[in-house]
Amino acid sequence: MKSQKRKVSTIANGSAAQNVGGIVIRHCHGIAEFEACIRVEREVWKSSEIDIVPTPLFVVASETGGQVLGAFQGADLIGFTLAICGWRARKPFLHSHMTAVLPGHRDSGIGRRLKLYQRTDALARGIDLVEWTFDPLVTKNAYFNFMRLGGIARRYVPNAYGITTSPLHGSLPTDRLVAEWHLRSDRVKRVLAGKSAAVRAVNAKRTVQIEMPANLDELKDKDPLRASQIQTETREDFLKWFKKGYAATAVVVNRSGGLDYMLEPWSRI
């Protein structure tokens, strides 16, 4: 099999664009490209207009130290990442508010390429931390965040965005874990190099496992009451262990085919 050629070119006002297999990852520029991001947003979340992130926020993010990154196939935008700049502990960080890839292009590495480009761009600007929120009930995202990127989570925000109109949320409270991606950490470097994101040996005997069923997406549609019960139990578990100084650092396959969370004591990066 021939290896894909990787092309790099420089664009104005941003990091070098990356072209792999005809998919270009680069900064988005201008209203037309921001509106293309919103078209992807609508197709992925299928929210009512009240919940759509509008064009002005994309403009503000682009102009004030955030990021609007796009995955382009020719002239077509097939995925994007939107991040805004924040300030914590006297240091800048990026809050990555949205990452989306169109259904026909998922599971092909585009989401990871967007995140890796985000990391490269952030590091080039002296930013060491990127954070984002994700639904604890969507363990596929947890696998991506922990096992493919090297992130951890130490905060749980109940109903972070309120009840939304997106069918992806199943009319449940938008409980969220906060992923921390410490870009220069040994953990991130190790995971991005293809090594395991397993629990650290020093904490192996003190790990905690939060069990998750395999059919959560189905339950949201067919048994919302049970899905709500699972969410409540999960919320209580995470809040309890985070209060004790634990962090979610990995997921493992359970007997039902789902992914359980692994937590371990974590006082520093």
Features of this protein?
alpha+beta; Aminopeptidase; 12 strands; disordered N terminus; single chain; 269 residues; nine-stranded mixed sheet; 7 helices
Could you characterize the architecture of this molecule?
With 269 residues, the chain is of the alpha+beta class. It has one domain (9-198): Aminopeptidase, CATH 3.40.630. The protein contains seven helices and twelve strands. The strands form two sheets. It has a nine-stranded mixed sheet, with helices on both faces. A three-stranded antiparallel sheet has the order 10-12-11. Helix 6 crosses helix 7 (224-243). The chain is globular and about 50 Å long. Residues 1-13 have low confidence and may be disordered.
Straight-line N-to-C gap: 39 Å
User: What would the CATH topology be?
Assistant: Aminopeptidase
Beta content comes to 25-35%
What's the CATH H-level superfamily name? Gcn5-related N-acetyltransferase (GNAT)
Task: Give the overall average pLDDT.
Answer: 90
Number of domains: 1
Q: Could you list the spans in which at least 5 consecutive residues all have pLDDT below 50?
A: 1-13
Topology pattern, helix = H, strand = E: EEEHHEEEHEHEEHEHHEE
Give the helix/strand class: alpha+beta
Which strand order spans the largest sheet, edge to edge or round the barrel? 1-2-3-4-5-6-7-9-8
Number of strands: 12
Main beta-sheet annotation: 9 strands, mixed
CATH architecture: 3-Layer(aba) Sandwich
Number of contiguous helices: 7
Q: What is the CA-based Rg, rounded?
A: 19 Å
What order do the helices and strands come in, and which of them pair?
Elements: E1 6-9, E2 17-20, E3 23-27, H1 30-45, H2 55-63, E4 67-73, E5 76-88, E6 91-101, H3 110-124, E7 129-134, H4 139-148, E8 152-157, E9 176-182, H5 186-192, E10 208-210, H6 216-222, H7 224-243, E11 246-253, E12 259-265
Parallel strand pairs: 6-7
Antiparallel strand pairs: 1-2, 2-3, 3-4, 4-5, 5-6, 7-9, 8-9, 10-12, 11-12
Helix pairs in contact: 6-7
